[in-house]
Amino acid sequence: MAPTGSVVMVRGPATVRVDGACRILGMDVSNSQVTVRAGKVLPFEIEAKTYIEPGAGIFWTADPLTSGTSMWQAAVERILSAKQGVVMLVGRVDTGKSTFSTYLANVAIERGLVPCIIDGDIGQGDLAPPGAVGAAIIRRQLTDLRDARADFFEFVGSLTPAGFERIVAGRLRSLLLKTRRMADLQIINTDGYVENGGLPYKLMIARVLRPAVLVCLGPREFCNAFGSGPWMLVRVKSSREAVKTRSDRLGRRATQLLRYTGDGLTSKELADIWFVYRNRHYSWDEVTFATGLHQTEMKGMFVGLGFDGRIAGFGIIQGIEDGQITIKTGLGNFDRVHLSNIFPDRSGPTFLQKQDP
After folding, report:
1. Can you give the residue ranges of every domain in the chain?
2. Using an 8 Å Cβ cutoff, are 116 and 187 in contact?
3. What 3-state class would DSSP assign to 158?
4. Is 47 helix (H, G, I), strand (E, B) or coil?
5. What is the pTM assigned to this prediction?
6. CATH topology for 70-236?
7. Which ranges of the chain would DSSP assign to H, the alpha helix?
């Protein structure tokens, strides 16, 4: 039995039975069964005498001052009371940005607002596969962003922002514009790239997106770098329970790739397809010159698939021969293939040699 006011952390994979009053990130999970995905850590916040039975998984009792949502309540109240539409989050890896985004969205829903989360983490996102960004209108409370279904995607084509900073900023702005009339609150969750040029990159994104509120998770000296902008700066404590292992990260990344790729095979005439790389469109005859890749080297490449001016799905190139391209995908119709430097079946991400076609 867990005492009132305690926080029980559960690392998945686990199925947890809750007997009593309990919340996870502002969502009431009292007297219910909760699934915790592999690599995910969730805080079960006890509101009364409650029995927690984690089936498998790992669990431990944490300090409410450094875990759960009590340390974030004042910041969330300040954000929502400001009645501003765009909130951007910045912070290093494993500081709890996705967790804070989920909590903020859940509280907003409880207040009768419609939040949208824009996931800008191209390497480890929750709302899009690696190499892409996604946006979801959150219509019900949830404990894990991966339970949400993205309404819009944009494709970047890299697992890391280095060299793609302006493209990432442009893709996030596109999602911001597409969703602004659909939500009362837009929450932009950025990646954890802040070292070795990452800080200027985050400042550039903030200037492009112009959020009303900028939430910084991290030490004061880091957050001070964002203090001179036109936004309201809100500094919040980082979660000390959010650390993921390398195995966790690789597993979640692989899961996302499989989730969005599908099992079907679709073939298209090369003459009917435009190829897109770094915002530029190429016919098949121009692709090798533009990217530096021969058609045999493109086998296994993870790609975005466009139709009617939007990213409609994703796939992996299976082969290019006899004037046709065959892609493993669940999507049947597309007229754009957005190229990347991501090859999931190889030992690690392989980057295109020519960065500026």
Report:
1. 7-62, 70-236, 262-338
2. yes
3. coil
4. coil
5. 0.92
6. Rossmann fold (3.40.50)
7. 73-81, 97-110, 165-179, 198-209, 220-223, 246-261, 284-291
